[in-house]
Inverse folding.
């Protein structure tokens, strides 16, 4: 290792959770949420890797090179052509695992971002676009990745299976995201495995129209949030794997509340229009007592380096 290749101090990044799909925007739309994982890392002269995990996933996730943050860091180092002899990682996790809030995307984006920060001149070697496309090779779809990377409300697309683009937009100030998280997880692979390879033209047309309307509703006119979040492609197909989620969404939408499955589930995302007080009143008694519900501010910054205090 050339000593000048890496910074000599620890660096820390924070990366937000995300909710993907938002109803009709399957694999394309995402929303960054102010629930954050924190990754601190430092290059060492000792060979190998040491990982310490606190919070979500502690005791469950591997603490060797199989750890998702470490895998992303190694891929980032390889891409930049800068391979350290060893490094230490400390992960302080707040994003729930297996709930549909983008924990894996946050780990990948966070790992790549912290690797970039550890390399001298890393921002010149690895742009945000590069980072997104490297992450895409690990995750397969850009919706959560783009939200965790850029923050805000994102719309993403694939130019090829290995190349993604994304734009980030601000939300209308009256839009309040509320996340309702069940106590039990669901594997994303299970949720994706039940989806059909082909869909009806009428269902595709339905989602194209609603997705277009959702961009307008979430950024300019929240009165359209309810019709804009109606989905015909993936939520009904997955209904049998999370019946409690499906029932809750049906109850909420019967009250004209814009409720959707968060990502692959089983968490539920509600997009509330705060200028309509009847929406919050309608929630009374509808939310399961053993689920956690919280209004979560949108994260408008995405992944970023933060100062290490103390």
């Amino acid at each position: 290792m050339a000593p000048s290749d890496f910074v000599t101090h620890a660096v820390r990044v924070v990366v937000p959770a995300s909710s993907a799909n938002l109803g009709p925007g399957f694999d394309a739309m995402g929303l960054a949420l102010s629930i954050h994982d924190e990754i601190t890392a430092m290059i060492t002269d000792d060979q190998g890797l040491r990982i310490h995990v606190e919070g979500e996933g502690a005791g469950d996730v591997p603490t060797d090179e199989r750890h998702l943050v470490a895998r992303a860091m190694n891929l980032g180092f390889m891409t930049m052509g800068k391979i350290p002899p060893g490094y230490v990682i400390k992960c302080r996790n707040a994003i729930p695992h297996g709930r549909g809030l983008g924990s894996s995307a946050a780990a990948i984006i966070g790992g790549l971002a912290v690797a970039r920060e550890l390399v001298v001149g890393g921002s010149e070697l690895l742009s945000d676009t590069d980072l997104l496309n490297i992450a895409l090779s690990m995750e397969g779809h850009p919706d959560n990745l783009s939200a965790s990377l850029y923050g805000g409300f994102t719309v993403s697309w694939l130019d090829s299976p290995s190349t993604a683009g994304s734009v980030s937009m601000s939300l209308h100030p009256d839009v309040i995201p509320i996340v309702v998280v069940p106590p039990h997880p669901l594997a994303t692979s299970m949720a994706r495995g039940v989806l059909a390879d082909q869909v009806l033209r009428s269902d595709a047309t339905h989602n194209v129209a609603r997705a277009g309307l959702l961009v307008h509703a979430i950024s300019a006119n929240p009165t359209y949030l309810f019709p804009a979040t109606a989905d015909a492609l993936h939520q009904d197909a997955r209904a049998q794997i999370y019946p409690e989620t499906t029932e809750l969404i049906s109850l909420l939408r019967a009250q004209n509340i814009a409720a959707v499955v968060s990502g692959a589930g089983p968490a539920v995302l509600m997009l509330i229009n705060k200028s309509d007080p009847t929406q919050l009143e309608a929630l009374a008694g509808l939310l399961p007592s053993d689920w956690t519900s919280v209004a979560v501010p949108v994260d408008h910054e995405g992944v970023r380096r933060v100062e290490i205090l103390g």
